[in-house]
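Sequence only, no structure available. Ideas?
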Amino acid sequence: MPKGKPWTPEEEAKLKQMVACGENLESISTKLGKTENAVIQKCRRLGLVVEGAKRYTSSSSIPLPAELPSPEEALKMLAGALKAATQPGLDKVEVQRLQVVATLARTYDHLLANYVRYRDIEAKLVELEKKYAQLAEKAKGDAPKPNTAQMVQPST
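Reply:
I predicted one. Tokens follow.
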């Protein structure tokens, strides 16, 4: 449910015109008497890109790294977020961003531990399969061969 005053069709038309003219976020919000956040949200809903607004990316558009960050790198990111969180005067958005960083670091640590454990199990399985194959070959070579001299000949 919207928190503020609903947008009129005239305000929406004016917003579209100002965005098309390349006006920045601060100017648009001042002229329309709306908060910058309200302008950003309305632009998103209308599919407009306003100058001066932060562009957010969805998880589907984030490029994946070629290699996993090491646990040390993840801990450094977490330490940086923790240090930044102790600074006075952080705004609500920055606090939320730091909370996300901390949550992601904890999740990464958990998933990395599972990944390493699975890789260890996989390596042991490969090793055991090799040993089993060697034992199977050896067992074939050590199997007693039947003595044909002692075989019973059928009587005629």
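The longest helix spans residues 92-142.
Hope that gets you unstuck.
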